[in-house]
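Lecture notes, part 5. Sequence design as translation. It can be helpful to think of inverse folding as translation between two languages: the language of shapes and the language of residues. The source text, in structure tokens, appears below.
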């Protein structure tokens, strides 16, 4: 989920710190009102139909206007009188439900991504996309779930919420320029007096029926690197008359993959991947140049130290082979860092069962197309995980640079399957089943209520730490 930024190389910034002040903590975990819960369940069939429509006709980053209009059409009858959705980031939109911004009540924003990927889908679903774009990252599920939440709030009445909801349908998560960065800086977004931002992502590395919430870094920073080695070309039969950039590049690629094991604290997470190498025009010619492209990702490893180590290896190895080399760093996303206090608040509201205490049975059946309703005593019907994090990247991190933010992950791997072994995010065969719309929507609604209660509760006590 990372993408290059079309900006000139520049020094990377330090890892973002959690914004202050911290989100207050309500003394008792709030629960979704029964009428609001019932309204959400009533919306799920329509949300699944919307998911199908978005999935069947996807739009790439920067071209989401049709998807945005489809979403706004689905919300048209719950837009409060006298209001219109706000345009944002060119092809995105925002809708506020609850007291207006000038009321002084801070809003809880929820981000859902509109864009698809340039992938030819191979799911075989009856609503499969047939062109060169596809929703193989779950964005169609996220959008449909947020629409269901917004419609439920609109029907049940925004007074069922402790704080207003700002539904943000964001463009350009998958490609530069970052849609999240543009939304976070947009005066229209700032004017809504947002107090916390929530996001959610389906996650095939987690079992079905699981929602993961934890504080601290949960997705890595991601920077693209471009390496170009310059040597002296010549005949393959006379290598001593050349300075072989291909051999130098091969050693550079091997060397940078040792950085994490020898230059990064073993208690910190980071990863370097070289995904592309280019050199030569014929098998018997040693070329003048060879190049490679890759990514450097830092979860809680030091981002700048990793990039400095890459430069050491690139330049030093090239010199050892009689070549020269240039390293270009294209800054991308910072790490997604969940605010600890907000994570504790939301985790407390999502239910009592924890994944580490719940052996097996995580999967939920295909059900009626939108999952089973939450059971008694279980606000969402989901098992809470407090351990998951990954070196994937997401531009949701830009919200966390300016506001308390929280990214949740909802598992998609069904019972009987091992998480991570099936098609993953961005794979042509990846597509969560329709029941995920309901599971994501329930997790979002419970989180919105909890975050809103924390924003308006000025007598809050610290929640228990997540362990």
């Amino acid at each position: 989920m990372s993408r290059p930024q079309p900006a000139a190389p520049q020094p990377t910034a330090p890892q973002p710190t959690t914004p202050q002040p911290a989100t207050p903590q309500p003394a008792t975990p709030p629960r979704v009102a029964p009428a609001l819960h019932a309204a959400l369940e009533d919306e799920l069939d329509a949300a699944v139909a919307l998911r199908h429509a978005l999935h069947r006709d996807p739009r790439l980053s920067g071209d989401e206007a049709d998807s945005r209009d489809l979403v706004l059409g689905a919300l048209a009858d719950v837009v409060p009188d006298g209001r219109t959705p706000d345009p944002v980031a060119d092809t995105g939109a925002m809708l506020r439900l609850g007291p207006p911004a000038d009321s002084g009540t801070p809003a809880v924003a929820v981000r859902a991504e509109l864009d698809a990927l340039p992938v030819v889908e191979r799911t075989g679903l009856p609503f499969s996309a047939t062109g060169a774009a596809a929703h193989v990252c779950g964005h169609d599920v996220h959008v449909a779930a947020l629409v269901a939440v917004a419609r439920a709030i609109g029907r049940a009445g925004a007074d069922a919420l402790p704080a207003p909801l700002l539904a943000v349908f964001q463009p350009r998560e998958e490609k530069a320029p970052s849609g999240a960065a543009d939304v976070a800086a947009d005066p229209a977004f700032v004017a809504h007096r947002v107090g916390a931002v929530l996001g959610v992502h389906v996650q095939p590395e987690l079992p079905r029926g699981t929602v993961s919430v934890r504080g601290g870094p949960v997705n890595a920073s991601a920077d693209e690197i471009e390496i170009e080695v310059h040597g002296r070309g010549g005949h393959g039969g006379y290598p001593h008359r050349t300075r072989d950039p291909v051999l130098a590049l091969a050693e550079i690629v091997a060397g940078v993959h040792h950085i994490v094991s020898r230059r990064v604290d073993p208690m910190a997470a980071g990863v370097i991947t070289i995904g592309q190498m280019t050199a030569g025009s014929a098998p018997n010619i040693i070329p003048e140049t060879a190049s490679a492209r890759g990514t450097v990702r830092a979860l809680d490893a030091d981002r700048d130290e990793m990039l400095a180590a890459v430069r050491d290896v690139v330049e030093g190895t090239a010199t050892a082979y009689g070549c020269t080399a240039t390293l270009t760093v294209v800054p991308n996303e910072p790490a997604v860092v969940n605010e600890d206090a907000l994570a504790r608040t939301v985790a407390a509201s999502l239910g009592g069962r924890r994944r580490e205490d719940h052996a097996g049975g995580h999967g939920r059946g295909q059900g009626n197309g939108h999952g089973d309703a939450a059971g008694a005593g279980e606000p969402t019907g989901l098992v809470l995980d407090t351990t998951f994090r990954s070196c994937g990247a997401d531009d949701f991190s830009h919200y966390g640079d300016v506001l308390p933010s929280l990214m949740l992950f909802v598992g998609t791997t069904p019972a009987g399957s091992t998480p991570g072994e099936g098609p993953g995010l961005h794979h042509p065969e990846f597509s969560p089943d329709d029941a995920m719309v309901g599971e994501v929507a329930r997790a979002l609604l419970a989180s919105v209520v909890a975050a809103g209660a924390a924003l308006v509760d000025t007598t809050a006590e610290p929640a228990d730490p997540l362990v």
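The translated text above is only one of many valid answers, since several sequences can fold into similar shapes. Confidence is low (pLDDT under 50) at residues 4-18, 359-377.
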